[in-house]
Each structure stands twice: as C-alpha cells, then as structure tokens.
C-alpha cells in the first residue's frame, strides 16, 4: 500500500483543538501502523457565507492539486462526511481512477442531505460510487442501504474508536482532588458543542429538577460557545429556571478524561446522534452514561450499558439522571468495559486496514 489521502471538512489545530479531533485521532492511528497518510482538510471552523465560500474553494483547489501531483502514488482516498467532502473523492475516481472510502458520521445524512434534492442526489451518487462506505452506527447503515440504495456488501459499521490510553478507568477521588471538586458534590457532566441540537436546553430544565432532590448537585458543561445567538437563548433559559451551571471551554482530551472520571454521571441529551463517541469515551473511563434514545446512542447504551431517555423531554431526562445518581457506581462497569473494548483503537485499526487492503487487491486485479 502506497499512500492514503484523507479529505475532511473538519480538522483540529492548536487554536481549535477539538474541531474534528476524531478525524485526527484516526489519522494518527493509521500512521502508527506504518501507513503513509496525507491529510487535506479544513481547519477553520469560522461560519458565514463569505468565510465558508473562501475556505471551501481554497480547500477544493488544494485537494485537486494534491490528487494531480500524487495520483500515481496514491492507493485510495478516504472522505470524512459524504457531502461535501465526498465530492472530492468522487472527482478523484472519475478523473484519476482513484478508488475511495467514505465515512458517514450522521449529520451528512440526517441534516445535510435533507437540505434540498440536489444535495440529496449528490450524496446518493457519492455513496453509490464509493468502493466502501463506513457508517459509525447501525441506524446509519439502515439509512445508507434503504434511503440511498448502497449495496449492503460495501457498507461497514465502525465507530471512530476510543483511545483507551487516554480514556481509561481512573480513581474518582484523585480526579476530584486535582479538579477541586468536593467529595460530597453530585457532579453531572456534559461534553459537546453548546447548540440546541445537543439538547442543552432540556438539560437545563432537567437540572432544575435534579437540584430539588440533590441541592449540592453541580452541572459542568465543556464545549464551544461560538453560536452567540443560541448562547443568548441558553442564558435566558438559565435565568428562567434560576439555575447556574459551570461552563468550560474546549480542552485537551486528557483533561476531558479527568473530568469524566470526576463526574458521577455523564449526560448526552442530543436530538440526533450518528454514534455518540463521547459517550463511549465516558464508558471507557467507567462513568455512568445517560443519553437520549436516538441514532447511535440507542445501540451504544442498550443492554444495560447506559440509561436511555426520551429526546426533548426534560422530565424523562431528569428521571434518568436521578436513576444514575442513585445506582451503585460499579453497577454497569463490566458491560461498559466490554463495549469500550469492542471499539478500541486496535480493533478499529485492524478493521480499517482490512477494508483498505481489500480495495487495493480489487484495484490490482483490474489493472
């Protein structure tokens, strides 16, 4: 295998350390296995019509130049997100006969393809033209096969994996000591973008109920607050409920792992979720997870691995959180560790490299 070219419309930098961190983690994993991986990605999360137009145009030009320059050395391209990223891989296949893999993360199917018929048609063409389609959850597999007509033999269910060197069981008392969290505090933790789709408004409403039962409870939220309009709505909801939360800006994964270890419960009240990688990371640390019964979370938290609640329902969310807070800490430990082991980096790397190798073998037979 010569070179794998990765396209992504999200990739972290020192300035924006969590922007597409899951893509970077997989890239570094592949490199650690000896693969030659080149990344052509967008690293600026700035929004707005003009900034978006500029960064996507520049990214398209850079991607084309990389494919033209390295087409003879490149084994295949791998696009993260079907649209718009997959357009690059589709062009690469048509112009330079480069086979490609697409990883569907959820938003590209649930939201992007639903914007209009042209994007949906382009998404379908990208998925049907791919040599392999990776979906991060079972529900997405069903969607890709039934809604977009992709041959199920080319669809693989595979999460982005959990780094068990970072997200691993830690002593709660030690984590709390380092983070200055009192031992008697009931600590709830949310990690994700501060946006409506992550269910943070319902979380505020639910936390109001939690505080009535646990007066010393605290809600810590780690995530980007770049959507100023929504943050005004969020602040008003806090005032209306007379609730205070502790908000932390995005931080390195090792710090997030420490916060997860210090928490009594990890909560992910999303309205939709392709997989819910951060919930898996919490499970790997050993912290109980409460999540909404949507998308990949429905599968990830099934069979006692976590507590599933109704989406967009603060009362159901509060009941799930109270259940988690009242359970023995080790009740779900074994099933959580088994689930995390099934998604370890070693397992993911082996499966991903097998997909690459099969595509390369097929290409060699055709040439």
TrEMBL record:
Its EC number is 2.4.-.-. Residues 24-165 form the Glycosyltransferase subfamily 4-like N-terminal domain. Keywords: Glycosyltransferase, Transferase. InterPro entries: Glyco_trans_1 (IPR001296), Glyco_trans_4-like_N (IPR028098), Glycosyltransferase_grp1 (IPR050194). The keyword Transcription does not apply. Residues 172-340 form the Glycosyl transferase family domain. The keyword Transmembrane does not apply. Pfam families: Glyco_transf_4, Glycos_transf_1. PANTHER family: SULFOQUINOVOSYL TRANSFERASE SQD2 (PTHR45947), TEICHURONIC ACID BIOSYNTHESIS GLYCOSYLTRANSFERASE TUAC-RELATED (PTHR45947:SF15). This is Glycosyltransferase. It comes from Sporosarcina highlanderae.
């Amino acid at each position: 295998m010569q070179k794998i070219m990765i396209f992504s419309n999200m990739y972290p930098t020192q300035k924006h350390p969590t922007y597409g961190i899951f893509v970077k983690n997989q890239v570094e994993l592949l490199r650690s296995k000896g693969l030659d991986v080149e990344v052509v990605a967008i690293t600026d999360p700035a929004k707005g019509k003009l900034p978006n137009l500029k960064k996507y145009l520049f990214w398209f030009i850079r991607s084309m130049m990389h494919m033209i320059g390295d087409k003879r050395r490149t084994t295949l391209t791998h696009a993260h997100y079907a649209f718009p990223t997959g357009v690059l891989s589709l062009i690469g296949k048509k112009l330079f006969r480069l086979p490609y893999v697409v990883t569907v993360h959820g938003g590209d199917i649930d939201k992007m393809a639903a914007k209009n018929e042209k994007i949906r048609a382009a998404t379908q063409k990208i998925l049907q033209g791919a040599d392999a389609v990776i979906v991060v959850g079972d529900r997405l597999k069903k969607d890709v096969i039934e809604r977009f007509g992709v041959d199920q033999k080319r669809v693989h269910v595979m999460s982005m994996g959990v780094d068990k060197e970072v997200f691993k069981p830690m002593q709660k008392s030690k984590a709390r000591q380092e983070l200055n969290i009192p031992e008697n505090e009931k600590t709830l933790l949310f990690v994700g973008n501060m946006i409506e789709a992550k269910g943070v408004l319902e979380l505020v409403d639910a936390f109001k109920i939690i505080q009535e039962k646990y007066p010393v409870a605290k809600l810590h939220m780690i995530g980007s607050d770049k959507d100023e309009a929504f943050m005004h709505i969020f602040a008003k909801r806090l005032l209306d409920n007379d609730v205070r939360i502790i908000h932390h800006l995005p931080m390195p994964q090792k710090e997030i792992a420490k916060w997860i270890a210090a928490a009594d419960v990890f909560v992910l009240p999303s309205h939709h979720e392709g997989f819910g990688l951060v919930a898996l990371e919490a499970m790997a640390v050993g912290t109980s997870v409460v999540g909404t019964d949507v998308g990949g979370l429905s599968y990830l938290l099934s069979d006692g691995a976590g507590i599933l609640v109704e989406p967009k329902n603060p009362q159901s969310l509060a009941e799930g959180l109270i259940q988690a807070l009242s359970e023995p800490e080790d009740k779900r430990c074994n099933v959580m560790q088994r689930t995390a082991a099934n998604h370890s980096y070693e397992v993911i790397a082996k499966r991903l490299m097998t997909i690459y190798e099969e595509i390369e073998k097929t290409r060699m037979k055709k040439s």
